[in-house]
Design goal:
By secondary structure, the protein is mainly alpha-helical. It contains 13 helices and no strands. Among the domains are: 89 residues; 152 residues, no CATH class.
Length: 394
């Protein structure tokens, strides 16, 4: 057992040297076997150059002589050779993985990273990079979310991370998880995306995050409450009922949070054309919720929104407030500083948004699969393609 432990350490050292030229087979005599084994044994504990000699002689022995299940020397050398070959393969895959990261080839990152994790499952850097890749390539998002959850677990357990700064990594990883739920579980996506917005990192300044949050409100509570509202109207003449008024109040509070998210997206967007498109869609919702509001009011909202705390999802109410009573649920007041007021009188605005796609992450991080240290990746490049209306993939 002690021999094998030593072999593991020595094989890792040998792996950094160039693959030797394949030795030609020689006659398998007892004298040759003795010479090859002695040369191997005298060198396999040495430095890299000596271990290369040991490897060459082990290969000569194994390649020149027929397999013999009773040959203990051959078994010992075979274990050494196998360990060296595996280490060399891992080193080669590691270099390919780092190149895929540097070149932003996300599908290659996923393929090669999985190979590396097969023998190093708790590598926090590789899990983190795979857990973020889905933000850049939507086809990888579902798979990426699994690695994101694993990476968060490893980071929370105290594993040192080199590929990204700690908070930046947690923000991206939670974003991956939230984004992966936009279609299947938008209410859960809201929780995850709000978590990202509260982590102190550059990620919270990425406009795509808030477009995703707005889409989650759209696909989740807003879609459900819009249907519930329609279903609760008087079936005879489609007039308001007590139930529809309560639902409408809850719906308007959700729209208020959607307005807040879109305003933050506009505030963090530097591209004038993209910002204009977001503001145009924002203005439609804002003016629906604020009768008589002007474009100047919308501009003021965008200018001030990031100085205020991002609102939590509204607590549903079960009855409308009447004079002298306290409403059940979140107070019907300004929700999140977006300038809106809840009142329940207006009909629901039409649903005009759909789920977002991915973003282009500037995932330039390198990871340490064999040696050295990695540099943090820059923040993702937001909205590299045209953003809303319909939330085109960034």
């Amino acid at each position: 057992m002690k021999r094998i432990i030593k072999l593991l350490a020595l094989a890792a050292t040998l792996a950094v040297f160039a693959v030797p030229t394949l030795a030609q087979k020689q006659e398998c005599t007892d004298d040759n076997k003795g010479t090859w084994y002695k040369t191997f044994y005298d060198n396999y504990k040495g430095d890299g150059a000596q271990q290369k000699v040991a490897y060459d002689n082990a290969k000569l022995y194994l390649d020149s002589c027929p397999a013999d299940p009773n040959d203990a020397q051959a078994k010992f050398m075979q274990k050494f050779v196998d360990l060296v070959n595996a280490s060399r393969q891992k080193a080669s895959t590691g270099k390919e993985f780092e190149k895929a990261v540097a070149d932003k080839k996300y599908s290659d990152q996923m393929r090669l990273g999985k190979e590396l994790l097969a023998t190093d499952a708790d590598n926090v850097d590789i899990n983190t990079i795979l857990g973020i890749a889905g933000l850049a390539d939507g086809t990888l998002l579902k798979e990426s979310a699994t690695y994101a959850a694993k990476a968060i677990q490893l980071i929370d357990s105290g594993k040192p991370l080199k590929a990204y700064p700690h908070d930046q990594a947690l923000a991206y990883l939670n974003w991956t998880i939230g984004k992966s739920k936009l279609a299947s579980a938008p209410p859960d996506a809201i929780t995850d995306l709000l978590k990202v917005a509260k982590i102190e990192s550059d990620v919270k300044k990425n406009p795509q995050l808030y477009l995703d949050l707005a889409a989650a409100y759209e696909a989740g509570p807003r879609a459900k409450l819009s249907k519930d509202y329609t279903d609760s109207l008087n079936p005879a003449d489609k007039t308001e009922t007590d139930q529809s008024k309560v639902i409408l109040e809850n719906l308007n509070r959700v729209i208020d949070n959607q307005i807040d998210a879109m305003a933050r997206a506009a505030a963090f967007t530097s591209d004038a054309a993209k910002k204009k498109e977001i503001v145009t869609e924002l203005a439609t919702l804002y003016k629906y919720r604020n009768k008589g509001a002007t474009d100047a009011n919308v501009t003021e909202l965008v200018a001030s929104v990031v100085s205020k705390p991002i609102p939590e999802p509204p607590t549903p109410i079960t009855s409308l407030q009447t004079p002298g009573t306290t409403p059940t649920g979140t107070p019907a007041t300004n929700n999140g500083g977006n300038g809106t007021t809840t009142g329940g009188g207006a009909k629901p605005a039409g649903n005009n948004m759909s789920n977002t796609g991915g973003i282009k992450t500037g995932n330039g991080a390198s990871t340490v699969t064999q040696s050295g240290s990695s540099k943090p990746a820059p923040s993702p490049t937001p909205l590299t393609k045209k953003p809303p209306v319909k939330y085109r993939r960034g």
